[in-house]
Amino acid sequence: MRRLLVALVLTLLVTFVLASYVKNVIYFIGDGMGFNHVYLASILEGRPLNMMKSQHVGIVKTFSANTWVTDSAAAGTALASGFKTNNGMIGMLPNKEPVPSIAEILKLYGVKVGIVVTCRITHATPAAFYGHVPDRDMENELAEQLIESDFDVIMGGGMRHFLPASVKGSSRKDEKDLISLARERGYTVITKKSELAQVEGGKLLALFASSHLAPASERTGEQPMLYEMVEKALELLSKDGEPFFLMVEGSQIDWEAHGNDPYGVWKEVVEFDKAVGVALEFAKKNPDTLIVVSSDHETGGLSTSTGTYMLEVDKLRKFKANTDWFISRHSIEEKEKFIAAVKEFYDIDMSEEEYSQLLNVKKTAKSVYDLPNAFGRYVSSKALLGWTTFDHTGDPVPIFAFGPGAEHFTGWLDNTDVPRIIARLMGYPLTYPIQKEPIITGPVLY
Fold first, then answer.
1. Over the chain (446 residues), what is each successive 10-residue block's mean pLDDT?
2. Is 101 noted as a catalytic residue in this protein?
3. Which domains, ranges and CATH numbers included, belong to the chain?
4. Residue among 42, 72, 294, 295 flagged as catalytic
5. Is the pTM value of this prediction over 0.90?
6. Is 108 in contact with 119 (CB distance < 8 Å)?
């Protein structure tokens, strides 16, 4: 009993010490963003990014329960709940036992909660903060769980998972009308950027696209930029002065890296970083706010060299479009027009041999991604920028922290450490089920 009391006192002391007057938390996740994604964007911008101004920087390991190379579902679960799980699973252990996220627990304590993303709101990373499914593709079920979460501010895409099957554009297989249900639960539901200004309070569900929002380099009209959504989320969550927790995902850094697209990565990282800047401005007026910026995993194996001791920065700065956009608008079968467009948008003089190689990729493609991926790697090579894969890697990722308690996010961390530290800093214990058996069945911990 005496030992138990000593342990309890020590736990309370640690909680007290860690609780450095953190009232609000803004938790940024750059999907697929590794060290070199951040560094490349900084080089191309010619300045330090907002996140790079942190005095407290750490390194985060990302492996999942069953593999050294995680997907976003397992990584999101670790970053949200503090537990490892298998790739593809959300909000539950490998044995399918659900575990609550930090957002769900904070909500139970009366803390306001927001989620802001540029992908479908039912995609893997945002879903890890409210969902519990064995398969990340169960987005219809995740949409239902999101409405049940009662989170205060929800912004992103994915309208198709909230509409009954009889409505054009729906991805549901039933007649559940989650938009009507959301309104019944007290949500204001909007679908346009221009409607944001009209929302002055209360719970908000903003779905700005049927699927994902357009890439940052293409987004116009009634789809807001990430920083605009973050500005509104902070306004609403802080309105009554009560504590809040906001998770913000730069969702599409990952997809541009999957395509080995340097221009796309550049623009997505900059959009994400601009939202970080908005948070930093908020924290200046609200110094009891902790800002944590990290990633779920690295994508693409990005390298700022191909072994030539050179990086053609000036050439990269002349790129004008992401490669998916370019390939979708310029037919490779029209040889002369295609070569001329490559010169116009990338300042690259494509040779006959290079053209023939890309044309052969199109002719032998087994996936719609084969040609844009090959084109992304081609334009990268012309700037002497390297990639090792079109998929995720097991590389560690950066973590940057600002504000009270930021010093706890330095050194080597596991992704499961991050939500646990945040929870202790806010003074709200994470109440997880007691595990009698080890849940890690994959990589050996060290």
1. 43 46 96 98 98 98 98 98 97 96 94 98 98 98 97 98 98 98 98 97 98 97 98 98 97 98 98 98 98 98 93 97 97 97 98 97 96 98 97 98 97 97 87 40 38
2. no
3. 23-302+397-426 (3.40.720.10), 313-382 (1.10.60)
4. 72
5. yes
6. no
